[in-house]
Amino acid sequence: MQGWMTGMGSRNWRTVFVLAVGALLAGCVVKDTRPLPKLNVIQASQQIPEDELLDVAIREFDPGVPASLAGDEEALAKKRIYPDVRKAEARMIPARIKSTLESSGQWGAVRVVPEAVQFVDVLVTGRIIESTGVELEIEVSAVDATGRSWISRKAYRGDADIGSYRTEAALRARDPFQNVYSQIANDLLAARGRLAAADRRELRQVASLRFAQDLAPDSFAGYLQKDSGGLTRLARLPAAEDPALARVERIRERDAAVIDTVDGYYGNFSETLHDSYGGWRRTSYDAIEKEERMRSQARTRTMLGAAAVLASILVSGQCASGDYDCQRLESAARTAAAVGGTAAVLSGIKRYSDAKLAAQEVNELATSFQNEVAPQVVELEGRTLRLTGTAEEQYREWRKILASIYREDTAPVGTPAEPAAAP
C-alpha cells in the first residue's frame, strides 16, 4: 500500500482523496422537500338520478400490525409500527376517504361501518401497509352488491405534502396525504363509470333484495340468481304492493338509521383526534427526517474521519532527509490529521446515538397518543355500543333484533311472537 501511494505521488494522491471526499459529501445531500402538487377529486358536473345514486360503506381498515411481531414493541418500533396509533388510524383513514367521497357530490350515503355491515351498493375495505408522518401506503379493495370487483387489493402510496405541516391552519385545511384519498375516490368513480345506467339501477335493487333475503330467506327466495360469471343478478322483482317487501323496507330504514348513528361516532372520533393526530404526524415527519439526516451525516463523518486517519499514516514523506524544519511541520500535520480524523469518527458515532434518540421521539409520541384514543362508549336507543372490537358485536346483536322485529310484524294474528331482545 505504501509503495502504491508513493508511486502515485503526493499530488495525485491528494487529488484522489479530494474526489473521494467529494463523493462522500455528495451522498449527504438532503432530498428536496417542496410541497407536492395537489390532486383534486373529480366533482359531479350534473345531478345523478336517484335510482343510480350509489351508497358506499367503508369498513374499518386492518391496522396492518404483523401477527408475528405482536407484543414485540422493540421490533415493531424498528419498523415504525405503533399498534395503538395504527388502531386509531384504522378508523380515521376510512373517515378521511368518506369525507373525500362526500365532497365530490358523486355518491349517495357514504358511511364508515363495522365489519358486520354488508348489504350495501358498494363496499370498500382496506389495510394499512405503511403509515408515518413521511409516507402513507394502504391497500384498498372495493366490491359492489352483485359481487363485481371495482378495485382489487390495489396499493395506494403517497409522500406527505409538507405544505400541510407548516401551520396549524394548513394542517386542518388539508390532510398531508389528501392526494392518496383523492386517487382512491377518482378510481371508484372510474369504476362506476364503466357501468351502464341499467347496471347501476340493478345494483341498487340487488342490494335491497340481499338485505331482504338475509332477514327473511323463505319470503324472498327466488328473486336473485348467480350468472355464469358468479355475479348476483335479478331473476325477478317482488310486486310493488307486496306487504312483506314494505315491511322489509321499513326495517331497512331503521337499520340505516342505526348505521348512520354509528357512522356519526366514527366521525366524532376522527374529529376529536384531528389536532393531536395531525401534530403526531408532523412531529413524526420531523423526527424521521432528523433521523435520516443524522444517519447520513454519521456515515459521512465516520468515513471522512477514517480516511483522514489513514492518510496521516500512509501518506509518504515529502521532505528531504536533512530538512528538519520541514519534517517537524510534516509530523505536526500528520498528528493534526489523525486527531481531526479521530474526532470526526467520534462525531459520527455520536450522530448515530442522536439518530436513535430521534427515532425514540416517535415512539414516545405514540405512547402519549394512546391515552387519547381510548375506546368511546356511546348510548344508542338504550343500548351501549363501544367503537372498538365490541362495536362489531353490538351491530351483530342489532341485526338479531331486526330479525325479531320482522318476525313480530309478520306473525299471524293470535300467534304468540318471539319477543324482540330487550334493547
Describe the structure.
- The chain is α/β, with parallel strands linked by helices and 423 residues long.
- It is built from 11 helices and 9 strands.
- The strands form 3 sheets. Strands 2-1-3-4-5 form a 5-stranded mixed sheet. A two-stranded antiparallel ribbon has the order 6-7.
- The protein is elongated.
- The N and C termini lie far apart (86 Å).
Provide a short characterization of the protein structure.
The protein is α/β, with parallel strands linked by helices. Helix content is 55%, strand content 13%.
Rounded radius of gyration (Å) = 32 Å
Strand content: 5-15%
* SS class: alpha/beta
Report the mean per-residue pLDDT as an integer.
Answer: 77
Q: Any chance you could write out the topology, listing elements then pairs?
A:
Elements: H1 2-8, H2 10-26, E1 56-59, H3 73-78, H4 83-104, E2 110-113, E3 122-131, E4 135-144, E5 149-159, H5 168-173, H6 178-193, H7 197-215, E6 224-226, E7 232-234, H8 243-272, H9 274-314, H10 324-370, E8 377-380, E9 383-386, H11 389-410
Parallel strand pairs: 1-2, 1-3
Antiparallel strand pairs: 3-4, 4-5, 6-7, 8-9
Helix pairs in contact: 2-9, 4-6, 4-8, 7-8, 8-11, 9-10
